[in-house]
Automatic annotation (TrEMBL):
Family per record: Belongs to the UPF0239 family.
Protein's name according to its UniProt entry: Mannosidase beta like
Ranges where the record places region Disordered: 46-85
Gene: MANBAL
Organism per entry: Monodelphis domestica (Gray short-tailed opossum)
Bias type Basic and acidic residues, positions: 46-64
CC terms in the record's Gene Ontology section: membrane
Alphabetical list of InterPro entries matching this protein: UPF0239
Taxon lineage: Eukaryota, Metazoa, Chordata, Craniata, Vertebrata
C-alpha cells in the first residue's frame, strides 16, 4: 500500500517567454501605480531659484466661447414655417 502513494511534487512546465513578459509587466505596472499613489499622498513642492518660498495662487479666468454668427433670416423663416404647421 505504501508503494502506491506518490509523494513527489507534480510536474509544472517551465513558463514561456510570454508568461514571463506578462509577469514582469504586471510587476512594473504595480510599481508605477504605487509611485503615482505616493506622489498624490506626498506632493513635492516646486520652488524656483529666485522666489525663495513665495507662493501666489493662480487665478483662473473663465472665458466664454464666442457664439457663432446670428442665424440668417432664411433659417429663421424656415423654423417659423415649421412651427406654424
Amino acid at each position: 500500500m505504501a508503494a502506491e502513494l506518490n509523494f513527489s511534487p507534480p510536474e509544472v512546465p517551465e513558463p514561456t517567454f510570454l508568461e514571463n513578459l506578462l509577469r514582469y509587466g504586471l510587476f512594473l505596472g504595480a510599481i508605477f501605480q504605487l509611485i503615482c499613489v505616493l506622489a498624490i499622498i506626498f506632493p513635492v513642492s516646486k520652488s524656483h531659484d529666485g522666489e525663495g518660498g513665495h507662493f501666489e495662487p493662480r487665478k483662473f479666468e473663465v472665458t466664454k466661447k464666442p457664439k457663432g454668427p446670428a442665424p440668417s433670416q432664411s433659417k429663421k423663416s424656415k423654423k417659423e414655417t415649421k412651427k406654424k404647421r
